[in-house]
Design brief:
By secondary structure, the protein is α/β, with parallel strands linked by helices. α3 links the parallel β2 and β3. A 7-stranded mixed β-sheet has the order 4-3-2-7-8-11-9, sandwiched between helices. A two-stranded antiparallel ribbon has the order 1-10. The protein is 41% helix and 19% strand. It folds into 2 domains: 216 residues, Rossmann fold (3-Layer(aba) Sandwich); 74 residues, rRNA adenine dimethylase, C-terminal domain (Helicase, Ruva Protein, domain 3). The mean pLDDT is 93.
Length: 302
């Protein structure tokens, strides 16, 4: 039976261990059991799935997923909390708990986590990677963003995150929330908000609403991006100057590799006006822009 991660259960467990939730780790525990079940259900887990969970908590979601998936790799940064969760996993032989930070930096997952994840997939025929987690707010953006940089690419990412972040990821063009993150994810995934959740379903209560976000990477979309690392870096650099016109933002982003005349030529070939702004371009247009930039730089260096 999975641990019942209710408010009273968590309070008892923490009190018995002499612990308190750590705000520095972004610990907000989901105490609505129906929503815990909804997260796992949304992921549509199968025995071929290797699940990455970041933020183990007390293992309520972990054990539900272990009963459905081939293997669950769960990562917990809190060295006090990890042993409590480990006790809940003793009857499972398909849960691996790593007590460490899932990130090496804001732009990179921890290599040990990636190596362990890939190693587990190699032991399961036709394995697929999925992220399913109640993500701590303070690591949600880099976890979701950097997972699209690993191989093999996850086939699903279902996560509880801050509502504001979910709306930024799914934002349409010309919207104030439209950003480099929106483009990075929408250029290669389908993403939708499954449920908005009020603070009352968490302990401790956060100050903002949360959301369950369902992200489905699409290989046919991903294949349009010739160099994902270059594409990712380019859009991030452009949106560092989002208040500028695209011409100026792009010129700043590639100033060491191209002249302003070359930037003008790229915009002209895309039939873009000099006063267009970055948030007015679709993900498809950014893919085209990235392709033109890479081609121009390659030709200039040859």
């Amino acid at each position: 039976m999975a641990p019942r991660q209710t408010f009273s259960y968590l309070q008892h467990q923490f009190a018995a261990a002499g612990l308190q939730p750590q705000t520095r780790f972004g610990q907000n525990f989901l105490i609505d059991l129906n929503l815990v079940e909804l997260i796992a259900k949304t992921a549509e887990l199968t025995p071929q799935d290797v699940v990455l969970e970041v933020g183990t908590g007390m293992g309520s979601l972990t054990t539900i997923m272990a009963a459905q998936a081939g293997h669950v790799l769960t990562v917990e940064i809190d060295h006090f909390l990890a042993p409590l969760a480990q006790r809940e996993f003793e009857r499972f032989d398909n849960i691996t708990l790593m007590q460490q930070d899932a990130l090496k930096s804001k732009n990179q997952l921890h290599p040990q986590v990636v190596e362990t994840l890939v190693g587990i997939t190699q032991s399961i025929p036709d394995a697929k990677i999925k992220l399913v987690a109640n993500l701590p707010y303070n690591v949600a953006t880099p976890i979701l963003s950097n997972l699209l940089d690993i191989q093999p690419l996850p086939t699903r990412m279902v996560a509880t995150i801050q509502r504001e972040l979910a709306e930024r990821i799914t934002a349409p063009i010309s919207c104030k929330d439209y950003s480099a993150l929106s483009i990075w994810i929408q250029a290669q995934c389908q993403a939708e908000i499954v449920r908005i959740m009020p603070p009352a379903v968490f302990w401790p209560r956060p100050k903002v609403d949360s959301a369950i976000l369902d992200i489905r990477p699409q290989s046919e979309l991903r294949s349009r991006i010739e160099d994902p690392h270059h594409f990712h870096a380019l859009i991030r650099d452009i949106f560092l100057h989002r208040r500028k016109f695209l011409r100026s933002a792009l010129a700043s982003a590639i100033k060491d590799r191209a002249s302003k005349a070359q930037v003008d030529q790229i915009l002209k070939s895309m039939e873009l006006q000099p006063n267009v702004r970055a948030e007015e371009l679709t993900p498809e247009q950014f893919i085209q822009l990235d392709r033109l930039v890479r081609t121009m730089i390659c030709e200039s260096s040859s």
